[in-house]
Amino acid sequence: MNRCVLLSLTASLLLATALTPAFADSIVLPAPPAGAGHADSAPPPAGVPAYVDLGATNQRGDACHATLETNAGVRLLSGFLDLWTPRSPFVDADQDAPAKDGCPAVAKSDWDGLPRSATDGTMKHPEVHAANLDYVIKTTTANTPEDDLEAYLDDRRGKSVSMTDGLGPLADAWRKGVQQTTTITGMPADATTVKYDDKGNNRGVGSAKGNTDMGKAVDLVDAGSADGSTEPAKRYFKYARPYRWSDKVRVVPQLVPAKSDKPAGDGGFPSGHTAEAWRDALVMAYLVPQRYQEMITRAVRMGENRIHAGMHQPFDVIGGRMQALAVVSYNLNRSDYATLKQEAYAQTQSFLQKQTGSTGFADLLARAHSAPASADRFADREENAAFVQPRFTYGLPKIGASGAPVVVPKGAEVLLETRLPYLTAEQRRVVLKSTALPSGFPIMSDAEGWGRLNLFAAADGYASFDGDVAVVMDAAKGGFNAADSWKNDISGAGKLTKDGSGSLILSGNNSFAGGVVVNGGLLVAASPTAFGKGDLYIAGGGLAVASRDLWLGGSLTVRKAGRLEVTVSGKDGGITAANGAAIEGGTLELVPAAGYKPTKGDEIPVIRAANFVGTFDKITLDGHTLTPVYRPDGLSVRIEG
């Protein structure tokens, strides 16, 4: 036998081995990823009075006698005392003058003095106060006519009317369902001299008045504000509005008639408009989780508009937000509202679907995000994120320690109940823990943890797996139980286990190290690093690679019951497994990427690995005949026709 014939036979044998590997029947599969070996938890802080248990103590009628010890609303904001010591309510009181609403009559007030008199309180950390006021001066000085108009509308019209903007394409259907009205639709020409009040019904018409369409939704929005007055905190802290601190603060001219001439009863901290807007927005987000992040963004914009108006400072806005989170959590956890929550949610989803012609939750979700930015100013998630993130803290100087452990308030998990319904209550608490804001910022480091909650980020799922996470999604329950997406960048040592029949998309730049196990349903990689640095183990169900590439820091294992779907784009892309791939069987489905048309003769890379063993039971690409090409370092597929 000559050398040429020998070389030809050797090449043929090598090719035959590549196409039908002899090692397929004798592979040894790696064990599933071990992960951290435990689940994470987020218990409420020990020894701290829980707002959800004591929210009823926040009563408007007790405003002048509220203390840290007696009023949950005041105690919640006690972090403000690190910046400010308020004057006693009885200092300078006129003992002979009659009390009003149980409040002592104040003989004099220096709240209009410039600079403000120290008799109203003692400033701490003056550099923080300076940054706080400077933000208002810069913001109001830079106001455009559009800023003035929006600030005017958010000041004078009903807060719930303003919040409906956050519903985007669903706003008209909501307004129709709740029968909402307003008389403030623009800025009247004489608004600089005339104070206009909204004569509409704000939240709409409740079920008791015959609204069978969405009366229960109105009832729940009303319920969310029960015991939610900001007056006790305002009276306790006695912190002036910004235009009383500095004449450099520009008040929107059309809001000058709305300024109070009684500064002693017109405290700025916390912002009542902000608190009310957040309360309504949170309940609306509960009822319409399809627009959850947009409603959070709209509430943040209300706070910013209070600053544009010249009526409030960042301190005030932060305090209003914190109190609203606690008040709504308190109310949504009340047993007497348990049935109302369910009825209001079902009624809202049914009416909105009917009005928009949607066929179910998923269709309504698509319609909720169907309008372009020109018609829906909250259409762009990335723009929303960029807007809200700096306005949680307003970049104020830190006065506390960085890196302090996160605590999650008792009952706060209810705020994610309809947004992440497939997670347990404890898992939702861990989500809040993993997405919390940094520590050290003024006011926000309260003992319960309300100040550090970041619901915008929490709506995108976990930001870290500091323990193992098992997700069970039952598609038959509908809503986000059937399909959801986590967009946060996930770190940590834990692993993710996907169970149930629903589908979950991961799209962050993830670095968690514990690995991924798929047992059921569908798990989708929408970014090259979706599955972090660990092993990927497909025991059952399906895994789809929707991104052009998927990089695995560990190994890839596919069991016989597993299904792997890979988007292919030609000569590059596919899965790269740093520590090898072991294929027991299962199905491999190839899907052409947008713009790619497979052609006869193409050889498409699918899996690259440090070492590759095993074969799939079935490989498909719709409309094409394939030949798999197995090699010791991966798998490619040749298009035969």
From TrEMBL:
SUPFAM superfamilies: Acid phosphatase/Vanadium-dependent haloperoxidase, Pectin lyase-like
Signal peptide: 1-24
Domain of life: Bacteria
Annotated GO MF terms: acid phosphatase activity
Domain Phosphatidic acid phosphatase type 2/haloperoxidase: 214-332
GO CC annotations, alphabetized: outer membrane-bounded periplasmic space
Record keywords: Signal
Protein's recorded name: Phosphatase PAP2 family protein
